[in-house]
Amino acid sequence: MISQRDIRLTVNGVSYEGSAEPRMTLVDFLRHELGLVGTHVGCEHGVCGACTILMDGKAVRSCIMLAAQADGADLMTVEGLAKDAELHPIQQAFMEERGLQCGFCTPGFMMSIHELLQTTTDPSDEEIRDALGGAICRCTGYESILKSVRNAAAKLRAST
To answer: Where in the chain is the domain with CATH 3.10.20.30?
Structure first.
């Protein structure tokens, strides 16, 4: 029998306590233990970016992290973007610019962009491409995603 590890963390501003087997990935803990299914499981090798979340403000691939590694951390998932049923400017921009189609990769893209726009309010296309370099989309091509990021950055600048 494998022993459980107690985990305490904050996700989207809410404190959680739970337990996980030592080998449980963080994405599985979020989805199956906490019911936060917005973070998607794609390649399970950290390559596609669908599982990207923010951990202590930094984008990480939750499919290649163990849940135990997040003990004590402050996490943000795509569910944490919208506030009071109002879309976050990133979500609004992706909708307006058609930066999503099937939506599978979208949560990872949005979290990577959120990290970028926290520090770079008017990113160049090169900075955007660099921030999104670890994410794969098989539906949109990337031009609509670039437009979405530019739009989101403009919305955020206008709101400050």
So the answer is: 5-80
pLDDT single digits (tens) 32-81: 999 999 999 998 998 899 999 999 999 999 999 999 999 999 999 999 99
| CB count in 10 Å sphere of residue 10 | 15
Instruction: State pTM to two decimals.
Output: 0.93
CATH number of 5-80: 3.10.20.30
Element (H, E) at 148: helix 143-158
The sign of the torsion formed by the CA atoms of 1, 7, 58, 158 equals positive
3-state secondary structure of 96: helix
| 89-158: CATH topology | DNA polymerase; domain 1 (1.10.150)
